[in-house]
Structure formats: structure tokens, C-alpha cells
Amino acid sequence: MRPGLGLPALLVVMSMATVVPAHAETFQVTVDKLDFLPADIKAKVGDTIEWVNKDVFAHTATVRGDWDVMIPPKKTGSFVLKTPGDVEYYCRFHPNMKGRISVAPK
Ligand SMILES: [Cu+2]
């Protein structure tokens, strides 16, 4: 008996992998003990920032007058960068937590 499903299943897996756009990156920022690490990131439009919260309380990544990402305790929050420029973000619950993203055009 020949196993009939092996090759088609492999092709499906390979075509799924090619759907991911090669040029967009994901940057991880660890949130630990009231700190964004790294606090300074260089990215470009279309990239994703993913915050990984190691603390047992919630944080946010908030840009005044613009976007706001909730980062629940022991979970992640993410945001896709849409506009170029330098952004400074902070946590609404702990305003002395600060980070910076320098967003280059695509
Ligand atoms: Cu916070």
C-alpha cells in the first residue's frame, strides 16, 4: 500500500509558508519589571512590534493622540506600524515606562 496523503500534505505546508511576506519583520519587546526591553527600536512601515509582558500586571504601549495597545499580564500585545517617523510611547498605568520606535518608510 502506498501512503497517498504524504505529498499533498507537504505541498500545503510549503504553500502556507510562502504566504508570509518576506520583507515585514516582527520585533519583540520584553516588558519586565516595569521596563521595555529594548527601549529603543528601529523598524519600518509594515513591521510588527510585539510586546511580551512578563509582569503579573497589565501594561500599555501608548502613543499620545495616536495608537494604544493593551498588554495583559503574562500575555502579548502587538501593533503593525503604519506611519513613518519617530514615535515615543509610554505605559498609561506607569507613565515613567517609556519606549521609542524609529519607523523608516517602507
Ligand atoms: Cu505599565
UniProtKB/TrEMBL annotation:
Keywords, alphabetical: Signal
Q: Where is the signal peptide?
A: 1-24
Pfam families, sorted: Cupredoxin_1
| Domain EfeO-type cupredoxin-like stretches | 14-102
Q: Which domain of life is it from?
A: Bacteria
UniProt cross-references to PANTHER family, sorted A to Z? BLL1555 PROTEIN
Q: What is this protein called?
A: Amicyanin
Q: Which organism is it from?
A: Afipia massiliensis
**Phylogenetic placement of the source organism:** Bacteria, Pseudomonadati, Pseudomonadota, Alphaproteobacteria, Hyphomicrobiales
